[in-house]
Amino acid sequence: MIVLGIETSCDETGLALYDSRPWEQGKPAHLGVLGQALHSQIEMHQDYGGVVPELASRDHIRRVIPLLKRVLKEANCPIEAVDAIAYTQGPGLAGALLVGSAFANALASSLKKPIIGVHHLEGHLLSPLLANEGKRGPEFPFIALLVSGGHTQLMLVNGVGQYQLLGETVDDAAGEAFDKTAKLLGLDYPGGAALSKLAEGGQRGRFELPRPMLHSGDLDFSFSGLKTAVLNQVKKAEASNTLNENFRRDIAFAFVESLVEVITHKAMNALDKTGCHDLVLAGGVGANRQLRAALTNMAHQKGGAVHYPPLELCTDNGVMIAFAGTLRLLQKEFNPSNLQGGFDIKPRWELSS
Question: Residue 286 phi/psi, 5° resolution?
Answer without folding.
Answer: -65, -15
